[in-house]
Amino acid sequence: MDQDPRARSGACCPNTGAGAPVRRPRRPAEETREEILNTAEKLFRTHGYASVTIADIAAELSMSPANVFKHFRTKTSLVDAIATRAIEQTLHALKALASDKPASERLAALAHHLMQEHLAEQKDAPFVFEMILVTINEELDCGDRFREIVVGMIAEIIHAGIREGVYHADDVPRLANASFDALACVIHPVMTGMEKAGIMATRCREVVGLIDAALRSPLAK
Amino acid sequence: MDQDPRARSGACCPNTGAGAPVRRPRRPAEETREEILNTAEKLFRTHGYASVTIADIAAELSMSPANVFKHFRTKTSLVDAIATRAIEQTLHALKALASDKPASERLAALAHHLMQEHLAEQKDAPFVFEMILVTINEELDCGDRFREIVVGMIAEIIHAGIREGVYHADDVPRLANASFDALACVIHPVMTGMEKAGIMATRCREVVGLIDAALRSPLAK
């Protein structure tokens, strides 16, 4: 099955019979998986998801399609893994964000950072929007993962605001979910693709202000 | 230019020379425009925007493409007009909505109604989402028109809430805009296409609750 031309043209292993394909040395599966993701992401970003096949990805890696298939059975599972990886990376950047500041500043910083990430992504690569639509239309897990992480961060900020005595909330997870949804206009990747960056920045500030006012109100349940 | 086969096969006008194409009686331009919009909307909805041409619309109407072109110079201008018409129709339905109820109930009714409209639209016709993406990617005027109308309605509700003594706001237009943006997760046509109706209904209720709490807070500017 291994039709890797690089492997075949490489140094020949003495115990390989003539005519039999030369196998490349085995690498850890995790490393191969990362390499496939990197290449798939690069090709999707530059040529578009729709026009790149698993065979193209395999060819770019000088790997057999079967080998790619062993790790990812569909193009959508590749997109899901690419998006999940990007989300996990964002998570690390966000964790340290303004953690020494008051809760309302942290909320603003979180929203602003997520918006900027999506704006920058989409400016870089016009085909990113196509990938985002795939994750939505195919209801991939990465969307739930993104929600779960960001809602968790908002909940943490609300708890901090309660400790500071500025926020009032009986049901933090519920308010964190509502806040996440209210922020969709500026942090949802589909929404950030729709407006100019200047308008988005104003919207972000105003909606964060609205959420902040709601969280400060003793009426918020 | 008029190559309408129906007109040619119709009753012949006595003063028309043999061989000359028979012209149909002129109709008011507004009526023709509506007829073109109805047919274009029907074809876009059933076959998809991308696969329907101006020539297809003209053929369906037994009209010359030049005649359609006289009213709409591009397919995008057709989509803009179809969407604007739908928005104006929604406006009429919304104006009467719960106008005798307290402001917070009116806000909930407005958001719920807009969400239901979009959900119903998209359930009916899978190609509606494609048209919505066209209005966004081409930055058509209908998007601004939708925003303008709904922000105006929210501002009217906030003013009513201030009169009732439950809402506090110095800058109503600013809060109306922020509320509209916060509601994007449930009323933006791209967002309504992404989730199941039950989840959307819960989200709508929760985000309206958050906005209501913000508007009740004397901290909301």
UniProtKB/TrEMBL annotation, chains A, B:
A Pfam family that the UniProt record links to this protein: TetR_C_27
Entry-linked InterPro entries: Homeodomain-like_sf, HTH-type_TetR-like_transc_reg, HTH_TetR, TetR_C_27
UniProt domain HTH tetR-type: residue ranges: 30-90
Annotated PROSITE patterns: HTH_TETR_2
Feature: DNA-binding region: 53-72
Gene Ontology molecular function: DNA-binding transcription factor activity; transcription cis-regulatory region binding
SUPFAM superfamilies from the UniProt entry: Homeodomain-like
Region (Disordered): 1-29
KW Transcription (keyword) present: yes
PANTHER family from the UniProt entry: HTH-TYPE TRANSCRIPTIONAL REGULATOR RUTR, TRANSCRIPTIONAL REGULATORY PROTEIN
Protein name in UniProt: TetR family transcriptional regulator
Keywords carried by this UniProt record: DNA-binding, Transcription, Transcription regulation
Source organism, top-level taxon: Bacteria
Keyword DNA-binding: yes
